[in-house]
Amino acid sequence: MAFGPRNSLISSQSLPGSDLALWEILSVVTSCLIVEWVVLSFVGRNKLIGSVPVLLAVGLMIYSHRERGESLQDIGFRLDNFIAACRLLLLPTALVVVSLLAVAWFSHSLFVAPWRQRFVLLPLWALFQQYVLNGFMNRRAELALGKGPKSIVLVAAVFSVLHFPNPLLAALTFGAGLIWAAVYQRQPNLFALAISHALCSVTLALTISPKLLNSLRVGFKFFG
Amino acid sequence: MNTSSTRLVHILIGKSIVETLMVGTLAVVAFATVLPPSFHGWGEVAHAGISGWAVNDAAPFERVEVQLFVDGEFVAAAVADKYRPDVAEAGWAQDAWHGYTFNVASVPGRHEARIYALHDSGGGLRKSLQLLGAPITFAVDTQGKVSALRLR
Predict the structure, then answer these.
(1) Is A114 within 8 Å of chain B by CB?
(2) What separation, in Å, do the N-terminal and C-terminal C-alpha atoms of chain A show?
(3) A208: which residues sit within 8 A by CB, 6+ positions away?
(4) Inter-residue contact A218 to A162 (CB < 8 Å)
(5) What is the ipTM of this complex?
(6) pLDDT tens-digit profile of B2-31?
(7) Is B26 part of the contact surface with chain A (CB cutoff 8 Å)?
(8) H helices within chain B, ranges in order?
(9) Verdict on whether the full-model pTM lies above 0.80
(10) Model confidence over B87-102: pLDDT tens digits?
(11) Residues of A in Cβ contact (< 8 Å) with B3
(12) Cβ-based neighbour number of residue A16 at 10 Å
């Protein structure tokens, strides 16, 4: 299913490609930061107000895909390269999970945090995050900076910034962001990335002390 | 010419405007909620220490909780519910029960006191302090007697 290619911006002569792509990234990041920092600090967990920047960002991303003629397949909602993407992710994901378990085992913090019902929804949340991070931002970073280290570092840096001011989480997401962005550029498959993301997140939540991670809080909520 | 890139630019500008308006509105509403301009009051050095009055125009018959800070340190809290007919007569309050008095037992020397009104918002989630009147400078002598000082 395509978003309805009207004009392929990638091939359009009138495209100020890199500037526009960077602006799109900045705009989506701004929406995320508004939710994390402004809405939470001013009105608490008011879902109605919090949904405004989220809907604006999602609307922008969908419109951008449509204008650039990107299909769901292009974005990474596909199964044909699922196994290939899983192969690429297997080793780094296993390394992260085993490392976290080992650290937890030797520091006696294994399963210090209780299992939470919301972990069941984590794959869906991970899929949404991977769509924003790679399905949208990575593709725009590629347009702006080309495939390779520059765009990968940009995506990882953005992912890290969205986890500020939680220092440990910001560092971990920068590392994970590098891996996921690099894998996406080779095999764009969001389902495989979401599985890797969910596995790493659950392991992190169950192995690292909530005190150290401040219960995975980010943005203004970090201080509350 | 309305190319797809200009349409996207328009969308980006529109989104920025909406978000700017939203953040601005939230900031103003939050400021007015957390620090409402409805608190009035005054404090001065009196015989026993520092006394004054506090009124919340938004709830004129409620008693305002006030806090005393001396040299930036919290000293005491009280409810402004003492009899002050002069405040009502001057038109600042609708009844005469908005006074407060703090005993000041500071070490000898020059000090600065500030009286704040304590305000709850967000269903008790947030508490804010608003300065009532001007900071009060006073001196305490070796006998513990408090006297007002004038700011130069």
Answers:
(1) no
(2) 43
(3) A100, A103, A104, A109, A113, A168
(4) yes
(5) 0.81
(6) 566 888 999 999 999 999 999 999 989 888
(7) yes
(8) 4-34, 85-89
(9) no
(10) 999 999 999 999 999 9
(11) 7, 12, 14
(12) 11
